[in-house]
Amino acid sequence: MTQTLPIGLTVTARVPASSANLGPGFDTLGLALGLYDEITVTTTASGLDITVEGEGAEDVPWGPSHLVVRAIERGLEAAGVWADGLKVLCRNAIPHSRGLGSSASAVVGGLAAASGLAAKVGDDLALTPAQLVQMSSEFEGHPDNASASVLGGAVVSWSCPAEGADAPRGYFATRLDVHSSIRAVALVPSERSSTAHTRGLLPELVPHRDAAFNVSRGALAVVALTERPDLLMPATEDLLHQPQRAPALPLTARWIEILRAEGFAATISGAGPTILALTTTELPDRLREQAASEGLTVYDLEIADGVQLA
Fold first, then answer.
1. Which domain holds residue 145?
2. How many domains does the chain have?
3. What is the largest CA-CA distance in the chain?
């Protein structure tokens, strides 16, 4: 039986941005980054009141079709509770359509907020991290960004075919604790990118040697992220998606070349156009100034923990 939540319950979810792929780990590796959206949800007597501040405020629907609202409703349903009305405030800092997991963060934040509301009437109603990974990945279609925002740190994620005609595909992830010396620098262009478009540039088939290359680099990336930061350069090499996307992202591709020539392990963040550099040293001022002159916003980001509730 579904339990109706009392009026006046409030919870805030603080959810990190994420970067996926990290070079060779296409649809598998992810990393939580210290740039946060905050979603505050309050139960009310009736209706839906949604306010969006910051990134995307002028672009996203302010109604039931909003991604956060859909995620809240899905989370409440999974927890076995409901609310007669909701007031939702989204304070967004994660750039939209830039390869920093803004949609995954919206979904994770909505699900986590729903879980937090349910937990206020019963601790046993809260959703587990595994449930959050599963449900957020169902929205996304792959678990790399979403699981990073749920679990924090770096993640290795995977999926399995559905076990029945009506069952969803299974999504799973495990967290890796990133070496304390590693920091992230994101260079964010002003233009946006479509994941569907850049994914459409990828071939259906790849040479066996390229697949073997990426398997080796993906395994090496786990070692580099956790124990051997000195291996980040070879560990972020890729043959399966970055060369194919480069023609559609010329500024991104050029800056990856610039940074790697300077010894910074730079990759396309997700589907782009953001450039992510993993490093143990500071990005020089001359590169920061050059990036700014070309319209790139530079973010120095911590490796973040997963979504937090207050």
1. 3-177
2. 2
3. 62
